[in-house]
Amino acid sequence: MELIHAETTGPLIDLFFDVHRSLGHGFLERVYSNTMVVAGKRIGFDIKQDVPIQVRFEETVVGKYQADLLVNHAVIIELKVCPTLLPEHEAQLLNYLKATHYEVGLLLNFGEKQRYKRMVFENAPKGNLNWINR
After folding, report:
1. Which string of DSSP letters, residue by residue, matches the chain?
2. In angstroms, rounded to a whole number, what is the distance separating the alpha carbons of residues 95 and 44?
3. Cα angle vertex 48, ends 46, 54, to 5°?
4. Measured between alpha carbons, how far is 100 from 126 in angstroms, rounded to an integer?
5. What is the pLDDT of residue 133?
6. Which of 3, 5, 19, 20 is nearest to 111 (CA)?
């Protein structure tokens, strides 16, 4: 079975490990975000930082968030620097996927022991949600 956006997530996961090997742990998320952008652009990715996400109820915006990175207009990346990934980190990324038309996300932890999680939330179950991503 082929994974959706595997051509993007595979190299991104490799890049994550390369960046962690190069920088180690202990920096703020912004340092890792900036490094992922630089390294990702070198291999031809279109990467945007701090991508706005609006959550709507009916026609009213009820929440505004920012995804750390958006790669190739297809994959949301949420970065963490913590001892371990927690269920609330996964919930955060899942909610970003629910609130947008994007279906694939990566949760990358640049803590002492690097960990990642790939998440998918297909558009079909999202029904009539209004997506705003600019």
Report:
1. -PPTTHHHHHHHHHHHHHHHHHH-S-S-HHHHHHHHHHHHHHTT--EEEEEEEEEEETTEEEEEEEEEEEETTTEEEEEE-SSS--HHHHHHHHHHHHHSS--EEEEEE-SSS-EEEEEE--SGGGTTPPPB--
2. 28
3. 130
4. 9
5. 36
6. 20
The structure's pTM equals 0.89
- CA nearest neighbour of 79 among 28, 23, 11: 28
Q: Which pLDDT does position 59 carry in this prediction?
A: 83
Neighbours of 80 (CB within 10 A): 21
Count of CA atoms in the C-beta half-sphere (13 A) of 31: 12
pLDDT digits 0-9 by tens, 46-59: 999 999 998 888 88
92-130 burial: b if 16+ Cβ within 10 Å, else e: bbbbbbebbebbbbbbbbbbeeeebebbebeeeeeeeee
Question: Which of 118, 51, 108 lies closest to 78 in space, CA to CA?
Answer: 108
Helix axes 29-42, 6-23, angle to 10 degrees: 120
